[in-house]
Amino acid sequence: MTETPLKLFNSLTRETETFTPVHPGEARVYTCGPTVYNYPHIGNMRAYVFADVLGRTLSWKGYDLTHIINITDVGHLTDDADEGEDKMEKMAAEKAQSIWDIAKHYTEAYWADVKALNIRQPAKWSVATDYIDEMIDFAKGIADKHCYELESGLYFDVSTIEDYGKLARAVTEEGEGRIDTVEGKRNAADFAIWRKTPAGETRQMEWDSPWGKGAPGWHLECSVMGGKLLGFPFDIHTGGIDHREIHHPNEIAQNQAHCCTGGLGEAENSGARIWMHNNFLVERSGKMSKSAGEFLRLQLLIDKGYHPLAYRMMCLQAHYRSELEFSWEGLQAALTRLKRIVMQVERLKDELTGDPSHQKFAPMREKFAAAISDDLNTSVALVALEEALAVKKVDGGVKRAVVEDMDRVLGLDLFGLTREALRIRPKSAEITEVEIEAEILRRKEAKVEKDYATSDAIRASLAAKGVEVMDGDPLGWEWKLV
Ligand code: AMP
Ligand code: ZN
To answer: Looking at ligand 1, which residue's alpha carbon is closest to its atom 19?
Structure first.
């Protein structure tokens, strides 16, 4: 098979580029992680499924991957203006709990979702508050040349570096009204690097600094952790598309100041060679939110009887740069597709893994490699997987090897998943799986005895409890909850 070069869309150049690692044979990736003030919604999790597919692809291509995902437990404000409240402080006050307890609870909830979606563990989860000293050092290093102090904190002067806002394609001269709320700023887009605790107030989280007691600005943490853990310039920086507008341009500005590099004509001067952004998961009613309407957490999907990997499948069916609209019908379709694949894979589970380089599978393997190398086209890659599963009259072990190899990238856990595991009882169901199975067995026995009255009565009583008996289902499912 010919080696297909990996092409990735770089948001900084707005072009698809061939991936060339900074350090030969290695891939160093930084992903902006969650702010742990609340549960992640499934839109947030799309960002990590995307980053996971990227990481898996790099590993699959043979690069030695170092992936960092941070946990933001300080500094992220409720709005992009520097006058908002810290999200963590606000939630802690609302819940009358310590920030540390809030952070612990929601970090663990996030990790549970990561696990359920079969997202691989990064090399490190870097927690922002573990890097406060480094953040202060970083700020000290750039303060003289690039920052100025106001009563409310230390601000970064975006006019001191070249090409500010290139990532967002923002026009700074006209100003960005959304950030221009702090009196005394030199440029509308200037942002806080250090926020001083206002006189007479105490915050749960505050540290001493040359600019007074306070807390770091959100953008600072990612510059500091990315640089420290991966070294500037590293290969790829990822996040959701909203970060393309403010968070990442500001991170880039800090990196330019810190590394004393020039303009962004050279992508590396930004601190990373490639900046990648996933598009949003949206609801028909508009943007997904943690406050409006039904809060779409992964647990809600599970409570309604959908296996979390059905949501992963839903993400894979769309290109990461396309907006994806969430609907329950779409999720159901993704689950059905996953069931079909799992059923075919179950037949391969007893096979010993063979040699995948069999010529019968060459077209599917080529198609898969070409798709995934084409800016992570997972939807076409999925089709290649299904085509490989459909190949007839072939050694099962060879097929197993081909499918396993593809799933290393897609991460659907196809050889761990079972048909039973995919059938989740909705929380609202009145009957347990064990009870259903017992009734199904009793019905089978009645049918063997030709006691159709009993068999019909069991079917009716199950139907009354929301269980549909599916005789002759092509997928081999005997029942489903409706
Ligand atoms: P946050 O915890 O708010 O910092 O967000 C975590 C990640 O989710 C960031 O990379 C965001 O850009 C991303 N994100 C937020 N909303 C969505 C959405 N609806 N769809 C996809 N990604 C999102
Ligand atoms: Zn970040």
So the answer is: 43
Q: Is 147 annotated as a binding residue?
A: no
Question: From ligand 2's centre to the CA of 85, what distance in Å?
Answer: 18
What is the number of the ligand 1 atom nearest to the C-alpha of 240?
12
With 70 as the cut, is the pLDDT of residue 283 above it? yes
Give the separation between CA 363 and CA 387, rounded to whole angstroms. Answer: 9
Q: For a substitution probing ligand 1, which of 44, 78, 247, 248 has the most ligand atoms within 8 Å of its CB?
A: 44
Whole-number pLDDT of residue 170: 65
Q: Is 251 annotated as a binding residue?
A: yes
Q: Which residues' Cβ are closer than 6 Å to ligand 1? A: 32, 34-35, 43-44, 46-47, 239-240, 242-243, 278, 280-281, 288
Closest CA to 341 of 421, 405, 423, 415: 415
Nearest atom, ligand 1, residue 31 CA? 10
Closest residue CA from atom 6 of ligand 1: 34
Superfamily holding 304-420: Isoleucyl-tRNA Synthetase; Domain 1 (1.10.730.10)
Q: Rounded to an integer, what distance in angstroms lies between the CA atom of residue 224 and that of residue 137?
A: 9
User: Which of these, 143, 2, 134, 117, lies nearest to 50 by C-alpha position?
Assistant: 117
**Residue located nearest, by CA, to atom 9 of ligand 1:** 240
> What secondary structure letter does DSSP report for 378?
H
What stretch(es) of the chain map to CATH 3.40.50.620?
7-148+158-178+219-282
Q: Where in the chain is the domain with CATH 1.10.730.10?
A: 304-420
Q: Is the pLDDT of residue 299 over 80?
A: yes
Question: Would the pTM of this model clear 0.70, i.e. be above it?
Answer: yes
Distance from Cα 30 to the centre of ligand 2, integer Å: 9
> Looking at residue 469, what DSSP letter applies?
E
pLDDT digits (tens, 9 = 90+) for 59-111: 999 999 999 999 998 877 777 666 677 888 888 888 888 888 889 999 999 99
Work out the percent of the chain whose per-residue pLDDT is above 70.
Answer: 95
Query: Distance from CA of residue 33 to its chain's centroid?
Result: 8
pLDDT one-digit tens code per residue, 101-153: 889 999 999 999 999 999 999 999 999 999 999 999 999 999 999 999 999 99
Question: How close is the Cα of 219 to the center of ligand 2, in Å?
Answer: 6
The answer to whether 462 and 441 have CB atoms below 8 angstroms apart is no
Crossing angle between the packed helical segments 42-60 and 396-410, to the nearest 10 degrees? 120
Fold topology of 7-148+158-178+219-282: Rossmann fold (3.40.50)
Q: Collapse the DSSP code of 273 into the 3-class scheme (helix H, G, I; strand E, B; otherwise coil) and give the result.
A: strand
Return the closest-CA partner of residue 244 out of 194, 172, 170. 170
The Cα 223–Cα 232 span in angstroms is 10
Whether pLDDT at 443 is above 90: yes
Task: Give the DSSP letter of residue 345.
Answer: H
